[in-house]
Amino acid sequence: LKKTTVNYIKPNLFPGAVRCLPLPEKARENITNAIQTTCNKIRDLVFAILIAGNQLITLVRMKKYTLHPSDIHLLFNLVRSSESFKTAESWTPICLPKFDSTGFLHGHVSYISEDCQACLLLLTVQRDAFFPLSQAKHTIADKLRRSNCLVAINDALNRNEELPTTNPLKHIGIPEIRHFMYKCKSTAQLFTSDPISLDKLQDYRLRHKEGGDITVKKVERLSDIDYVRNYRQFCSSIHCTSTPAKLIFRSNSCDTILA
């Protein structure tokens, strides 16, 4: 087995939630409207999903149908695992176990344009719907370009410093907070500051060692597994079905955690 180093911890999976790409409200509304108005007359289209950078931009669905967060993460993995979606429109069967473990949907998968890293997935029960969905994809792309939504997506992905969502910690006004997570139970959406950077945390601890020359101080190794274990432990306790904890507080020499 090849050993890999995890430099960033993505906590989305632990609370059973999906992280959404932070966007201006008007931009997200325009994106959703573009997809809805294009797809509302397409027969048997079950889901239309736009994602970027392992984050959800918008999801349009048939009435009475929903997608579980774990199924959305499967779609994230599908898009991330193949470079072919960037160069061609793909037609592939997709099984979403939480939605229907006994069958699959037919998926039209492609990036929205060459100059935008957002991927559009159109999922249907019709096996011969490739060409109608391909036309819909191009129509959606044209609408998003005319409304400058592609620029808004790129700015969010490139972390434009002018956007207040680029650095949430900066706008909270509590400099002691290093990282936070908030899950909305009704939508299973997750809002969080940046994924934990182990290098940044180690640098932070080095610069804040008390006394002595920081250049000769030994930094206690921070394990990514420790942080993952902490999030998993607290989320399991908070969301335990039998005896859920209402409040968790822990403070030690390394950090203070409130859940």
UniProtKB/TrEMBL annotation:
<dbReference type="Pfam" id="PF19037">
    <property type="entry name" value="Fuz_longin_2"/>
</dbReference>
<comment type="function">
    <text>Plays an important role in membrane trafficking through the secretory apparatus.</text>
</comment>
<feature type="domain" description="FUZ/MON1/HPS1 second Longin">
    <location>
        <begin position="44"/>
        <end position="140"/>
    </location>
</feature>
<comment type="similarity">
    <text>Belongs to the MON1/SAND family.</text>
</comment>
<dbReference type="GO" id="GO:0006623">
    <property type="term" value="P:protein targeting to vacuole"/>
</dbReference>
<dbReference type="GO" id="GO:0035658">
    <property type="term" value="C:Mon1-Ccz1 complex"/>
</dbReference>
<protein>
    <recommendedName>
        <fullName>Vacuolar fusion protein MON1 homolog</fullName>
    </recommendedName>
</protein>
<dbReference type="GO" id="GO:0032510">
    <property type="term" value="P:endosome to lysosome transport via multivesicular body sorting pathway"/>
</dbReference>
<dbReference type="InterPro" id="IPR043971">
    <property type="entry name" value="FUZ/MON1/HPS1_longin_2"/>
</dbReference>
<dbReference type="InterPro" id="IPR004353">
    <property type="entry name" value="Mon1"/>
</dbReference>
